[in-house]
Amino acid sequence: MASLIENLIIQLNEEYPVYEELLKVSMEKTPAIISNDLDRLKQVTDREQYLVDKVTSMESSRARIMKDIASVLNRDSNSLRLTDIVEFLEGQPEFRDPLAEIDEKLLKLAQKLKEVNMHNQNLIEEALSMIEYNINLLQNLNRAPETAEYSRDMFRGGNAYGGEQTPTGRFDAKQ
Description:
Blueprint: H1 2-34, H2 38-73, H3 82-88, H4 93-147
Helix pairs in contact: 1-2, 1-4, 3-4
């Protein structure tokens, strides 16, 4: 069991810098979104995807270790969490303390990453709303002459608006 815990601690310590880099890249995405720099945004997104792929492969290694620990503890591997393992290791501070420390660091980092990603998502949604507004505005500007209820003779002197009260319409009410 001790070697499994050591492997888990090593695995988590290897994952942590990758998550830090992912946070850094996600933070670089914010100014690219704000400045509408699509080339820079693509570069950042490509780097972010590379790191996500790396994290995914590391997560599969961690999942295998967690599954082995769950089988030793006779627990369901899907419901076993790091906090459960930390509690189980209560009498073994040489394993419990490093595991609790990296777990806490990863939780804080994950929370920061979640906040940055939510902020970026909100910025993207606002940018899309602004684009949609501009498109609608341009479409309405092009349609305005067709939908307006004014005639081109409206401000000339010989009609109902210009002074003379004789209607010039073609509708014959007597028909």
